[in-house]
Amino acid sequence: MSGETFSRALEGTRVLLSGAAGQVGVALRDLMPEGVELLALERSTLDISDADRVTETVAHFRPHWVINAAAYTAVDKAEHEPDLAFAINRDGAANLARAAQSVRARMVHISTDYVFDGRKSCPYTPDDLPNPINVYGESKLAGEIATRDILGDNLLILRTAWVYAPHGRNFLTTMLRLLQERDELRVVEDQVGTPTHAASLAEVILRSISQDLTGTYHWTDAGVASWYDFAIAIQEMAISTGLDVATCRVSPIPTRDYPTPASRPAYTVLDKSAIRERLGHHGTHWRARMEHSRPPLS
Ligand SMILES: NC(=O)c1ccc[n+]([C@@H]2O[C@H](COP(=O)([O-])OP(=O)(O)OC[C@H]3O[C@@H](n4cnc5c(N)ncnc54)[C@H](OP(=O)(O)O)[C@@H]3O)[C@@H](O)[C@H]2O)c1
Questions:
Q1: 70: CA distance to ligand 1 center in Å?
Q2: Ligand 1 pocket mutation, candidates 23, 31, 77, criterion most atoms within 8 A of CB
């Protein structure tokens, strides 16, 4: 299905989007076809942990689809704030699911590669057993379970990984800043996953809705990288754009030399074959995707 065809399929669809100011939320707003009636709500307008407000808002708008792009995403902070992480990632998601159910809407719930423990050495399929190793992953898995219990077949869970966007705070923008500020950067090379542009995830969400896809699927950009590989690619892209960052030495280090409050899974490459087949959409290698939409470099 081409972009134009999925735009046509979505015409007249009412979509309620939570977390509209986040990386994926902004990408969804940017890509939303004109014919969609969109209610895009940032945290200041709709706090998903406020059950009454969620019920009221959904009942009033009566969407066909709810897209939950809201989440507590601070992986390290979650170790010290588990109640807040669960209040948003489990209870907030459940509030949206209950509200969606009451107006017979379907829901897209975005989840994470961090529901897995990272012990595999080949890509995780949607049927692999989750076993999170940090609070963030536990709270996201609890959100999957809670929303599935409520919505059953009317739910699409899309697990993704290593999301970045040209704006906001993420690995890409952080590296671009540090490359300019520092002479040396040490980046972990023994955690492997796939960088994913928020816009390519947004496109897959819209394609999925246009085809009424439900169930649990995985989506990232194509290919595999370590954080070190990702950092080197960012540096090379920055140099090719004329940014003066060639003198910054980027060195690979093991995870044990970069201790963080939250443990991180070593390997979380996701198997995308099921959704690729269902949507007839294969995506792009992460590096080409990044270079295709260069961020504003300064
Ligand atoms: N980022 C990644 O690498 C990554 C990887 C795998 C999966 N995911 C998943 O992808 C989804 C989108 O993530 P993202 O990268 O777009 O994250 P993000 O940029 O941190 O956006 C999340 C948004 O949710 C909002 N939010 C937080 N608590 C809320 C609440 N109680 N009510 C309403 N909104 C609330 C945040 O607002 P404030 O900024 O005001 O708090 C923020 O705008 C999430 O489900 C995340 O778990 C992300």
A1: 5
A2: 23
Distance, CA 110 to ligand 1 centroid (Å)?
9
Rounded to whole angstroms, how far apart are CA atoms 97 and 100?
5
On average, the pLDDT of the chain sits at 95
Number of domains the chain contains: 1
Question: Is residue 30 situated within a structural domain?
Answer: yes
Q: What is the mean pLDDT of residues 73-90?
A: 98
Q: Where are the beta strands (DSSP E) in 141-270?
A: 155-160, 163-164, 184-188, 192-193, 196-197, 215-218, 225-226, 249-253
User: How many A from CA of 43 to the centre of ligand 1?
Assistant: 10
Residue 142 lies in a domain: yes
Which domain covers residue 18, as residue numbers? 3-162+197-221+270-284
Residue 8 located in a structural domain: yes
pLDDT, tens only, 118-163: 999 999 999 999 999 999 999 999 999 999 999 999 999 999 999 9
Across 99-113, 167-181, 281-295, least confident range: 281-295
Q: Which of 162, 163, 164, 227 for a ligand 1 pocket mutation test, highest count of atoms within 8 Å of Cβ?
A: 163
Nearest CA to ligand 1 atom 2: 163
Q: Which of 102, 143, 109 is nearest to 214 (CA)?
A: 109
The ligand 1 atom nearest the CA atom of 171: 3
Supply the residues annotated as catalytic.
136
Q: Mean per-residue pLDDT for 26-48?
A: 97
* Helical axes 227-240 vs 171-181, angle rounded to 10°: 60
Q: Are 21 and 69 in contact (CB under 8 A)?
A: no
Look at residue 180 and tell me if it is in a domain. Answer: no
Residue 141's CATH number: 3.40.50.720
Could you identify the atom of ligand 1 that is nearest to the CA of residue 20?
43
